[in-house]
Amino acid sequence: MTTYDDRASLTDLTTTAERVRRSVESVIEGKPEVVRLSLTVLLAEGHLLIEDVPGVGKTMLAKALARSIDCTVRRIQFTPDLLPSDITGVSVFDQQRREFEFKPGAIFAQIVIGDEINRASPKTQSALLESMEERQVTVDG
């Protein structure tokens, strides 16, 4: 049975999604289907893979979406020499406090743009896939 609170929440969600869609479409012109799909993936807490030629606005789409919902965005340029710890983070020893301090990697953003993932080593790709599938990272292990 649907309650008044459920309908009000759905109305609020719809209103917010429409506001975000308009905001992103003001930056990404002429691609309403891409914007709609991106917003759908975001609302479903999923992942989106966009493959296209350079210069068509893939990064701009992610940044516009992040700005519209006020969240963090980080870009990772995958290269053969990129280490898993470069994306997941690393524990660094603080000599003054005599303890380890965790320095989070780029994967700790709310929106992560991964460029040329296929160039990364299998271990680095595994670290990325773990964070996507399990929604957690393994650090120093």
How would you describe this protein?
- It is a single chain.
- The chain has 141 residues and is of the alpha+beta class.
- The protein has two domains: 1-52, no CATH class; 72-135, Rossmann fold, CATH 3.40.50.
- 45% of the residues lie in helices and 16% in strands.
- It has five helices and four strands; from the N terminus they run H-H-H-E-H-E-E-E-H.
- The protein has helices at 4-25, 32-43, 58-69, 84-88, 122-134, and strands at residues 73-77, 89-94, 99-104, 111-115.
- The strands form two sheets. The chain has a two-stranded parallel sheet. A two-stranded antiparallel sheet has the order 2-3.
- Helix 1 crosses helix 2 (32-43).
- The radius of gyration is 18 Å and the shape is globular.
- The termini are far apart.
CATH 4th-level superfamily of the largest domain: P-loop containing nucleotide triphosphate hydrolases
* Helix/strand structural class: alpha+beta
Which radius of gyration do the C-alpha atoms yield?
Answer: 18 Å
Strand content: 15-25%
Examine the coordinates and then state which fold CATH places here, giving the name of the CATH topology of the largest domain: Rossmann fold
CATH classification, class level of the largest domain: Alpha Beta
Largest sheet: 2 strands, parallel
| C-alpha end-to-end distance | 47 Å
Number of helices: 5
| CATH-level-2 architecture of the largest domain | 3-Layer(aba) Sandwich
Q: Segments where pLDDT lies below 50 for 5+ residues?
A: none
Average of pLDDT? 90
Strand order of the largest sheet: 1-4
Shape: globular
* Total tally of structural domains: 2
Secondary structure: number of strands: 4
